[in-house]
Amino acid sequence: MELFSLKNKVALVTGATGLLGRQHCLALSEAGAAVVVADLNLGDCRHLANELPGENHLPLALDVTIPHSLRTGRNAIFKKYGQLDVLVNNAAVDDKFESPALAAEQSKFENYPLANWLRSLEVNVTGVFLASQIFGSAMVEQGRGGSIINVASTYGIVGPDQSLYLKPDGEQAFFKSPAYPATKGAVLNFTRYLAAYWGKAGIRVNALSPGGVENGQEGWFVENYSRRTSLGRMAQPTDYKGALVFLASDASAYMTGANLVVDGGWTAV
């Protein structure tokens, strides 16, 4: 089990206070890491940091789209710890439409707003690029190796199944937008680029592709989604903790440039 230990390691999670980000922080702290809990709202980060096992965690207000914010965060991390060993690029946006009555029409590819497309690119792709550039470069400079984990998605591997969003009466509730699959596909190939580029520096770069997580969705959607998976259910938020610790730790010491798919068999059939 020592292979999975993150004792004396420092791990940074972006988008830390979201549904999966919280579990990423918990998993890393349970494995022994000091966790940098980074997200837009400092108060939320402080609250989460106080809930984690251990006492040496750092709440950090961070915007992954702003280089100055990332550099300020890097300086705070090295001032407190003098090191950074794990970077989890988890921050991302997914489309939400305010009016359910208009969601189907607004989410159609033919009508999809350019502003939504650009915002998704800014956070999901440029945010991963900037965080990797600024924090990853610091990891290279310290000369002790490290692990970068880019959170992707099954929709970065396969196209969305729009039938999932059909209500029982046959009405299309909405369409999965083009931006999320496009940006998560970009994250996967960026992962391969960084793995090849930083391999000699001992920086391993891998992707984690989760499937859909049950989180209060309508019953018909949960049923539609579950039917499409080999295991017959959606994921629970805790289902990715083991995979994340594996990628962060020496248990995956000879693994880089890979995409670890944890989707209940969604992409297997």
Task: Report on this structure.
Helix 1 (19-30) crosses helix 8 (241-248), helix 3 runs parallel beside helix 5 (114-142) and helix 5 packs parallel to helix 6. The protein has a single domain (2-98, 121-159, 179-217, 236-264), classed as 3-Layer(aba) Sandwich (Rossmann fold). The protein is α/β, with parallel strands linked by helices and 269 residues long. Strand 2 (34-39), helix 2 and strand 3 (58-61) form a beta-alpha-beta unit. It contains eight helices and seven strands. It has helices spanning 19-30, 42-51, 67-80, 100-107, 114-142, 179-198, 219-227, 241-248; strands spanning 10-13, 34-39, 58-61, 86-89, 146-151, 203-210, 259-262. A seven-stranded parallel beta sheet has the order 3-2-1-4-5-6-7, with helices on both faces. It starts with 9 loop residues before the first strand and ends in a 7-residue tail after the last strand.
Proportion of residues in helical segments? 40-55%
Sequence stretches where pLDDT stays below 50 over 5 or more residues: none
Provide the succession of SSEs.
EHEHEHEHHEHEHHE
Shape: globular
Number of strands: 7
CATH class: Alpha Beta
Quote the distance from N terminus to C terminus: 33 Å
Quaternary? single chain
Question: Structural class from helices and strands?
Answer: alpha/beta
> CATH H-level name... which superfamily?
NAD(P)-binding Rossmann-like Domain
